[in-house]
Design goal:
The chain has helices spanning 3-32, 80-87, 95-101, 114-117, 148-161, 164-177; strands spanning 37-43, 49-55, 105-107, 133-135. The strands form 2 sheets. A two-stranded antiparallel ribbon has the order 1-2. Strands 3-4 form a two-stranded parallel sheet. It is α+β, with helices and mostly antiparallel strands and 194 residues long. Helix content is 40%, strand content 10%. α1 runs antiparallel to α3.
């Protein structure tokens, strides 16, 4: 999507979602008194870092406990409120602000962590040619249930074939994709190359 369309769609979605976002934020705060937002450095277009925003769904300091960045169904670090937010993908709503700020697009590859980007092959680095998105080609084809190399390949395909029509197709298929799981398994979907 172009910048004007991103701002229009994300701004309208923020406005429409604001009551739900407000209630979800209140639930996170009341659950354990910790911060409402979870902030994490991710890699964006052209390999530039940015601060990704999400509603916090795990205990404070979760990355330093258990499986670190990997999260799986039943992970004890996920709060009861967090389970509901993750299941409904409401934890992703603050990323609409990332779109408005220009860090992300509505459609594009999901933003990844620096340690993952450092292990990309030259072909996989092509996914960094476009802004990361809230939804994308890999998300409508299985999300985190797909093996990591397959997700990356779908993202590269999108970077090579993106068009307004493809973006409309992705937008149309995203609601159904949200019904799928968001868990990645013990390795966070990432396998170290042999």
């Amino acid at each position: 999507m172009n910048r004007a369309a991103d701002v229009t769609v994300a701004g309208a979605a923020l406005l429409l979602a604001s009551p739900v976002l407000g209630l979800a934020a209140l639930a996170v705060r009341l659950a354990d008194g910790g911060p409402v937002l979870y902030r994490q450095t991710r890699v964006g277009k052209d390999g530039v870092d940015f601060e990704l925003l999400k509603l916090r769904t795990m205990v404070v300091g979760a990355e330093a406990q258990g499986a670190g960045f990997a999260v799986d169904r039943g992970d004890p670090r996920i709060t009861p409120v967090g389970r509901v937010l993750r299941r409904l993908s409401l934890d992703e709503l603050p990323q609409l602000w990332n779109v408005v700020r220009g860090d992300m697009s509505v459609i594009g590859p999901r933003p990844t962590l620096r340690y993952q980007v450092e292990r990309y092959t030259p072909r996989q680095r092509r996914r960094l040619e476009v802004k990361p998105g809230i939804t994308g080609w890999a998300q409508i084809h299985g999300r985190a249930r797909l093996p990591w190399p397959e997700r990356i390949e779908l993202d590269v395909w999108y970077a090579e074939h993106r068009s307004p029509w493809l973006d409309l197709k992705i937008l149309a298929k995203t609601p159904l994709a949200l019904l799928g799981g968001t868990y990645k398994g013990a390795t966070g979907g990432w396998k170290n190359p042999s």
